[in-house]
């Protein structure tokens, strides 16, 4: 969708508007009432309402759709929707069986949820960049009297590093939980100080306690960072390219937009698959002994 209109903003303003989150300010500084006129007040934090709401709606859509198909599943010839859902479930189940070397009733549903939820959040990039923000501006102006220029909506939750990092931190909690369940609390703590470097003598074991612990912490911290930044970087770049294409004249917009959207289908699917597979691999490593 082209951004051109009679009172079109500059390209910089247009890009900045589309890259600004719809926020709710959390807390205000005690000096906010003394802020000079025209200056921006500082806040203790921001809650990205658009990221949370879009992600929640898509999560409920996934759960509702799969639950409906599961309730209406028939043993005979399946319908198209049931066939599609079964295809996804079988694909995820195959990857879990080939990659996860432990036994868990959680890993299958978790992997399915990650793949479908991340895919749906990524797929919001396929909507015209002005569609939902324009609707949000109309709603804000019509029902709340808000200035349309100050109504913001970003529709790709995975282009928000807060969302991707929150998901990766959840994976880390699962890693710790799986490790403790497989090895016991004492076994997990022991592994933190005895792997990856091993020694035979008691003196060397004591000397390697700190290096082992530091290496374990580096490994544990690297996992959420790699998971979150990989997904965020790819989706943020894709979102920005769609915004830049929308700034072009309509005939160039369609010429470049369609091929990029087709290519982006691969990116959207691949990033969801990679996030799922890395989660399975990390959880598989968590239940194994060094």
Structure described in brief:
It is built from nine helices and two strands. The protein is mainly α.
Any overview of this molecule?
- The chain is mainly alpha-helical and 290 residues long.
- It has one domain (11-287).
- Helix content is 68%, strand content 4%.
- The protein is built from nine helices and two strands; from the N terminus they run H-E-E-H-H-H-H-H-H-H-H.
- It has helices at residues 11-18, 49-72, 80-99, 107-123, 131-144, 161-194, 202-207, 209-246, 250-286, and strands spanning 23-28, 43-48.
- It has a two-stranded antiparallel sheet with strand order 1-2.
- Helix 6 packs parallel to helix 9.
- The model is unreliable at 1-6 and 29-33 (pLDDT under 50).
Features:
290 residues; mainly alpha; two-stranded antiparallel ribbon; 9 helices; 68% helix; globular
For the secondary structure, the number of strands is 2
User: What spatial form do the alpha-carbon principal axes imply?
Assistant: globular
Distance between the termini: 53 Å
**Topology as H/E string?**
HEEHHHHHHHH
Describe the biggest sheet?
2 strands, antiparallel
Cα-atom radius of gyration: 24 Å
């Amino acid at each position: 969708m082209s951004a051109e209109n009679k009172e079109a903003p500059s390209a910089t303003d247009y890009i900045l508007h589309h890259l600004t989150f719809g926020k709710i300010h959390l807390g205000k500084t005690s000096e906010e009432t003394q802020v000079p006129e025209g200056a921006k007040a500082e806040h203790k934090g921001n809650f990205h309402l658009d990221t949370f709401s879009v992600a929640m709606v898509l999560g409920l859509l996934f759960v509702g759709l799969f639950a409906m198909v599961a309730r209406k599943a028939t043993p005979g010839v399946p319908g198209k929707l049931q066939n599609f859902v079964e295809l996804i479930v079988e694909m995820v189940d195959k990857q879990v069986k080939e990659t996860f070397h432990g036994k868990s009733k959680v890993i299958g549903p978790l992997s399915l949820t990650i793949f479908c939820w991340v895919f749906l959040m990524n797929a919001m990039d396929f909507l015209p960049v002005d569609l939902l923000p324009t609707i949000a501006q109309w709603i804000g102006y019509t029902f709340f009297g808000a200035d349309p220029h100050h109504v913001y909506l970003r529709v790709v939750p995975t282009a928000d590093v807060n969302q991707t990092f929150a998901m990766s931190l959840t994976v880390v909690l699962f890693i710790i939980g799986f490790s403790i369940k497989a090895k016991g609390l004492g076994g997990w703590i022991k592994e933190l100080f005895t792997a990856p470097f091993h020694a035979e003598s008691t003196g060397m074991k004591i000397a390697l306690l700190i290096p082992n612990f530091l290496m374990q912490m580096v490994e544990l911290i690297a996992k959420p960072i790699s998971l979150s930044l990989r997904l965020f970087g790819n989706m943020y770049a894709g979102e920005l390219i769609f915004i830049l294409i929308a700034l072009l004249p309509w005939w160039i917009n369609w010429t470049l937009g369609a091929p990029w959207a087709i290519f982006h289908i691969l990116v959207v699917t691949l990033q969801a698959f990679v996030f799922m597979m890395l989660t399975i691999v990390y959880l598989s490593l968590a239940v194994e002994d060094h």
